[in-house]
Specification:
mainly alpha, Hypothetical protein af1432, 2 domains, 1% strand, elongated, transmembrane helix, signal, Cyclic_di-GMP/3'3'-cGAMP_PDE
């Protein structure tokens, strides 16, 4: 796991903030009323953050307000001169004030998110403010289509800057390849991200016509969108909690060891992330891993320690098939049942051929389940190393080599959340 990109991004954001704050202190605050209005909007937006599926935290109104201030040209027909340093200082300080309630509850966002906001806002302001304040845009009417297209181009570039930063930080922290991480961030941009960029653009243009009234008026649609995302996120969270509760049935009935399903799910998600799976596929994988042992409830006598990896191949397949039949009646996506049903199939068939139709999720669950079964008797370092060695000995026949190596890298980097015993 490479921390250097993380440190470089944080250092760049901290340096930009310090320089901006020093610049504002030295030169004074220009147009304080406008700065306070945008600062209030950003602070309120940060205070009503939402958590999207995949544990993505977002402050749509705060981000749109910061972008609008960075792109602010005329205000009710009159020129402004806030400049890059003031934009960065005002938006960052306002954002931090909005985060105080979360800090009091020890739920403050990660430093990565704050650093991204500082750098993205500074990038947008650097692209626009010098051009506007120098008079280079005088040839483009501030009420024409050309001016709107210019603002839209800057907003798009700022959004892409944030996407690249998010992917780089995510890749550095998790060890995931940059390409898949970037694709996930681009897909997320098409959702709430596009609404943020559009709202910031509209607020900036609206302020040029109607003044500061544009802030609450044009933020209202984004607020409604945010409420819809919040409801969707709450529904997804409830669904995941229901799946987790159902998965615990095997533990309550004594068929599996306490925490086994959660550990396998956490390992599977970490391995899938390292292999470059999309966020949507990771959610399906996690769901299948949580319920991978449901079929054990059909057994008359529990398997010792719930270790299905040590059972004969035919018995493993029977349990997997029965579990998939139960899952098909739970309302989860049909792919989840398919992943569980095929988790008992080895990487290669008896004639040595590799089954190209075997889902990657099934291969991951098979290896993660076997690993947790093997270390159940000895969770110490020696037991974990022995379990990995046994998996490697069966690599290419029972287990996918890429999955086993990814699992080894995940374990070498420390247990993912939910796997500690």
């Amino acid at each position: 796991m490479h921390r250097y990109p993380v440190g470089a991004v944080h250092a760049a954001a901290a340096t930009l903030l310090l320089v901006s704050a020093a610049g504002v202190l030295a030169q004074g605050l220009s147009e304080a009323r406008t700065a306070l209005a945008f600062g209030a909007l950003i602070a309120v937006g940060e205070a009503v953050r939402i958590t999207l599926p995949g544990d993505r935290e977002q402050a749509p109104i705060g981000a749109a307000g910061a972008l609008a201030y960075a792109l602010l040209g005329p205000l009710r027909g009159l020129p402004t001169d806030q400049g890059v340093l003031q934009v960065v200082a005002v938006t960052t300080i306002a954002g931090l004030l909005g985060l105080l309630p979360y800090a009091a509850r020890r739920r403050a966002p990660q430093p990565d998110q704050i650093a991204r906001r500082i750098l993205t806002t500074g990038f947008a302001a650097t692209l626009f403010q010098p051009l506007y304040n120098s008079g280079a845009l005088d040839r483009i009417t501030t009420r024409g289509a050309q001016y709107g297209l210019l603002l839209a181009a800057v907003a798009v570039l700022a959004a892409l800057c944030d996407v690249v930063l998010a992917a780089a930080l995510h890749s550095a922290r998790t060890g995931r390849r940059f390409g898949p991480a970037l694709r996930d961030e681009l897909r997320a941009l098409l959702g709430i991200g596009s609404a943020i960029a559009a709202t910031g653009l509209v607020i900036s243009l609206g302020a040029g016509e109607v003044g500061l009234w544009a802030l609450p008026v044009f933020s209202a649609p984004l607020l409604l969108t945010q409420l819809s995302f919040r409801r969707y996120s709450a529904t997804s969270t409830t669904h995941r909690q229901s799946v987790a509760s159902l998965a615990r049935a095997t533990e309550v009935a004594g068929y599996t060891l306490p925490g086994h399903s959660r550990r396998v799910a956490a390992l599977s998600r970490a391995v899938g992330r390292r292999l470059g799976m999309r966020e949507h596929d990771l959610l399906l994988l996690e769901c299948a891993a949580l319920m991978h042992d449901i079929g054990q409830l059909s057994l008359v006598e529990p398997v010792p320690g719930g270790a299905t990896a040590l059972l004969p191949q035919a018995e493993q397949r029977r349990i997997a098939r029965l579990g998939s039949e139960v899952i098909r009646h739970t309302g989860v996506p049909p792919e989840v049942a398919g992943f569980v049903e095929r988790q008992a199939e080895p990487y290669r068939t008896p004639d040595g051929a590799r089954d190209p139709g075997l889902p990657p999720a099934s291969r991951i669950i098979r290896a993660a389940n076997a690993y947790d079964d093997l270390v159940s008797g000895d969770p110490g370092l020696a037991g974990r190393l022995e379990a990995l060695e046994r998996l490697r000995l069966d690599t290419g026949r029972e287990y996918d080599p890429r999955v086993v190596e990814a699992l080894a890298l995940v374990c070498a980097g420390g247990c993912p959340r939910g796997t500690r015993r």
